[in-house]
Amino acid sequence: MILAEKIIRLRKKLGWSQEELAEKMNVSRQSVSKWEGANSIPDLNKIIMLSQIFDVSTDFLLKDDHEEFATVHEAKEPGINHISLEQATEYVEHKIAMTNDITKGVVLCVCSVMPLFFFMAMAETNRFNMTGDIAAVLGIVCILIFVAIGVSFFIKTNQYQDEISTIEEAPFELAYGVHSVFHEKRQQFRPTYNLRLSVGIFCFIVSFFR
Questions:
Q1: Per residue in 117-130, pLDDT tens?
Q2: Alpha-carbon distance 98 to 159, whole Å?
């Protein structure tokens, strides 16, 4: 298998168009088209970039070997799960869903005492003729409700255990190209993560002055 065919198969395996690969390579779509049509050959720097993007060796790209493609992509070691791009994406989605549920549960538990403070303040200012005992009862009831809902979110995370156990509880290896795809996604998400972290730290610091 020549280089042109390998580029086509690797690109399609990741579901990328020629335009998307060209953008990642910082070249024109016409350049990618010429590579895949065997009308031109990428220079050494571009070969290295292709190996990093597709997560394959430069030897694999440069050697015209039919069997090597099958060996690189299909061979599996006994007892090791071979994780495809779809499985890896599904795993990340489940982990995000679990994190969201845990966050909701924690927020509800932390905020469960707020109604108690509110009702006690109402009793102290004698609004709506609310007594301290009534305020305490209402506050405790709200705490129980908030905590119960929060715990339900924690329990809800169990539904994802079967889906993530394949990766978390057994040896696995990523299919070629998966690592580079998620490395790129991580780089794209990093500014958002840093912004959210900064906002969280700011809110935590400000909370001490209230």
A1: 998 988 888 877 78
A2: 9
